[in-house]
Amino acid sequence: MEYILKDYQPAALFRYFEEISAIPRGSGNEKGIADYLCVFAEEQGLAYYRDDLHNVAIFKDAAVGFEDKEAVMLQGHTDMVCEKNADTVHDFEKDGIKLIEKDGILTADGTTLGGDDGAAVAMMMAVLADKELKAPRIECLFTVQEETGLGGAEYFDYSKLSARRIINLDTEKEGEAIASCAGSMNLSFKIAPDFLPFKNQSVKISVLGLAGGHSGTDIDSGRRNSIMLLGQLLAALYEKTPFNLVSLEGGNKRNAIPREATAVISVLDREQALAEIKALSVSFYPLLVKEDRGLKIRADKCAKPEKMMSYADTSRVLSLLTLVPNGVIAMSNGKKGLVESSSNLGVVRTAEEGMEFSVYARSSVESEMDRIYLAMKRMAKLVDMELIFLDRCPGWAFNPDSALQKDFVRVYKETFPEGGEPVVEAIHAGLECGIIIEKMGGGDALSIGPNMKDIHTPKESLDLRSMERTYKLLLNLLQA
Asked: Are 182 and 343 within 8 A, CB to CB?
């Protein structure tokens, strides 16, 4: 293949990133990247293990003189969030990512970049391929389905690993180590409405142009959720001009703040409905944060559907959209500025059998997660919908006695003496460390990574010089 990242070091690190970017690797489609990693391990003469979910572990023996040092696990995930702009032609099942490099910043052409967590995959491969590296035994764990609920980390057989010193490579801010994260819970509301033959006039309403973002790191940014915004608009319209809902579609990933949503409704008077929608839309724009000022609300006639929901079922859907907990639920009492609990209505789909709403909740306090689940159950009863519990992952508690945290601070200062004070943080986003530590029966962990922006959106970017520096820091940590 033709490489575009030619001015960055080490060359192998960036070559690996380009190679994995050419492999489709959306969540649930990780076979290709697993095949690639296994071939890589064989070429490097390294032992490896692959399970039937396509998690891969690759092992590198300790260098001479480092045999008595504690083994280190490096960990990241191979899957990526697959988001694209509405006008971008790209098949994530078949097409690789088209990379664009400008002034040291790497982006993709109208799609997510996959720096989350392709940067980790490339760094682990570079470490494994480095024949000169003086370090203890290294166990690299490449997990799958992280972006859809941490399924790979949950499934993996940890008897294959021995390291209890764990460096996760799935964060997006250089100079900062994450040492605690929130747990998560996946839920779905389902409604099986009594569909009626369509009558009256059809209107299609679209919410477009929102920034979206990560439902953990961006949940307190003020960015609007397209599904919730559309629900608010529809509920306000229903109060003025009752209508029958035909369909509702929005979002792509339950852990991404949705950018777009569309509804089709049946109205008695189309012109009156369009005028009401236009008047209601005006109120949304003054409250938008800067990132969301590309918002467009469109309404127009559309093709005549075959069926629609009753007024009663339409009302149930609108009640859910206006009442379900969404966004920041509570801030931490122990750490200023940290979100403690949140919920994100990330996806809604309409099918023959009905409608499904996918919710991703987070909390760093297990009892609060219990409370959120109770609130969701009561909400389901209130709107007469089925609530499906899919999975729940533990959080990762902060360890003030972590030796790895102390090593990070010391090594960072030694590596970048002019780089300022390193930071050890807790975050609201989810990382796989909580599951790994639980499954391993303990461990000392932290998470680092290069500067990235707008992950989970087509604006995602990776700072290539930051990736150089982060890799240098990683090498020094391994030799600490």
From this structure: no
Does one domain contain both 129 and 202?
no
Residue 228: which H helix or E strand, with range? helix 226-240
d(CA 109, CA 89): 10
Task: Output the pTM of the full model.
Answer: 0.73
Tell me the pLDDT tens digit for each residue of 445-474.
999 999 999 998 899 999 999 999 999 999
**Domain-embedded: residue 405:** yes
What's the Cα-to-Cα distance from 58 to each of 46, 126, 127, 405, rounded to whole Å? 7, 12, 11, 25
Q: Distance (Å, rounded) from C-alpha 144 to C-alpha 349? A: 24
3 state DSSP class of 100: strand
**Parent domain of 210:** 185-393
Q: What is the pLDDT of residues 301-353, one digit of tens each?
A: 999 999 999 999 999 999 999 999 999 999 988 778 889 999 999 999 999 99
Query: From CA 105, how far away is CA 102, in angstroms rounded?
Result: 5
Residue 149 has pLDDT above 80, yes or no: no
> Is 80 found in the same domain as 64?
yes
CATH code of the domain in which 265 resides: 3.30.70.360
| Total of domains in the chain | 2
Q: Is residue 1 part of a domain?
A: no
Which H helix or E strand runs over 368? helix 366-383
The helix (run of H) or strand (run of E) holding residue 469 is: helix 464-478
Is residue 205 within 8 A of residue 235, CB to CB? The reply is no
Do 194 and 124 lie in a common domain?
A: no
Q: Is 236 within a domain? A: yes
What is the rounded distance in angstroms from the CA atom of residue 434 to the CA atom of residue 352? 38
How far is the C-alpha of 370 from the C-alpha of 364, rounded, in Å? 11
Domain finish residue from 343, 358, 393: 393
| Distance in angstroms (rounded) separating the CA atoms of residues 19 and 436 | 28
Residue 311 CB partners (closer than 8 Å, separation 6+): 242, 244
Question: Is residue 117 within 8 Å of 170, Cβ to Cβ?
Answer: yes
For 414-442, b where at least 16 C-beta lie within 10 A, e where not — what string? ebbeeeeebebbbbbbbbbbbbbbbbbee
Judgement on whether residues 252 and 348 belong to the same structural domain of the protein: yes
Amino acid at 174: E
380 inside domain: yes
In angstroms, rounded to a whole number, what is the distance separating the alpha carbons of residues 75 and 68? 22
